[in-house]
Inverse folding.
């Protein structure tokens, strides 16, 4: 499930008409990175929680026959492959609307009927990960071993806990930690640890029972963290540190950094980008 119904206020003015999830890192919208990460983890069905003004996102995953025909006629095979590579399997994806951005928990709840009574993954597409193995695949490996609910987590500066969902942990082998509590955006003095949730979750469907109460939490929003906290104790619940870099593309500085990092990974772009960035830095000195 991909919640994509937020307003993207931190990314204005770009997001006045362009969905935040359609902002591009190099030449791919961030939502496509998340979909590819999910596919690499073995996910075969895709649900998007959208809202008004997100039709570009829906079209991105659809066939574009005229464009394809033109590319074919001009012999632009690489461009055609790039266009076709963004498609999703017919009958295996769908969109549901969140009429009002009442919070991530509410967005997830909106997809209940489409998800049904089975475990599911939530990927927040504005968080883009870079590394050899899909972060969701790393989580699926932990899920196959331990079951229940699995969150991707990372250590943050203790002074910054009020920006994140924070874990209280029991047993911790340095990679996987047992979750004993979850708090959304605690002040540093109230934070049970400095392990923060990042935007990847594997959850059991019982979370919908708690989300269905529509209780608001931090910031007056319906928080996924609060509903997840209620599952702890009744089901296995683990946080797993992941290998790879994370970029919060809803943050302008990290979005720019993601573009540089992904461009430097590309054989066709690395030399040019390195030269341009070096020149800019040189002029600054
Ligand atoms: P964010 O808080 O990062 O997104 O939510 P936002 O609210 O769009 O961004 P800012 O802070 O105003 O810039 C993380 C993800 O959850 C979705 C967003 O679309 C984003 O992908 N979301 C958030 C919803 O789908 N519905 C909501 O009510 C809130």
């Amino acid at each position: 499930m991909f919640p994509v119904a937020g307003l993207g206020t931190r990314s204005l003015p770009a997001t006045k008409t362009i969905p935040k999830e359609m902002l591009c890192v190099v030449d791919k919208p961030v939502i496509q990175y998340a979909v590819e990460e999910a596919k690499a983890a073995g996910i075969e069905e895709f649900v998007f929680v959208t809202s008004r003004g997100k039709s570009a996102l829906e079209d991105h995953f659809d066939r574009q026959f005229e464009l394809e025909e033109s590319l074919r006629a001009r012999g632009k095979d690489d461009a055609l492959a790039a266009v076709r590579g963004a498609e999703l399997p017919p009958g295996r994806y769908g969109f549901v609307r969140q009429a009002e951005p009442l919070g991530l928990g509410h967005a997830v709840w909106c997809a209940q009927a489409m998800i049904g009574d089975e475990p599911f993954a939530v990927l927040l597409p504005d968080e883009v990960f870079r590394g050899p193995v899909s972060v969701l695949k790393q989580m699926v490996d932990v899920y196959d071993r331990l079951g229940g609910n699995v969150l991707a987590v990372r250590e943050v500066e203790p002074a910054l806990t009020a920006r994140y969902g924070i874990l209280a942990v029991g047993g911790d082998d340095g990679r996987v930690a047992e979750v004993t509590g979850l708090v959304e955006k605690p002040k540093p003095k109230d934070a049970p640890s400095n392990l923060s949730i990042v935007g990847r979750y594997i959850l059991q469907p019982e979370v919908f029972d708690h989300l269905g109460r529509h209780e608001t939490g931090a910031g007056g929003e319906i928080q996924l963290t609060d509903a997840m906290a209620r599952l702890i104790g009744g089901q296995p619940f683990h946080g797993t540190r992941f290998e790879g870099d994370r970029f919060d593309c809803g943050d302008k500085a990290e979005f720019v950094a993601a573009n540089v990092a992904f461009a430097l990974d590309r054989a066709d772009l690395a030399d040019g980008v390195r030269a341009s960035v070096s020149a800019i830095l040189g002029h600054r000195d």
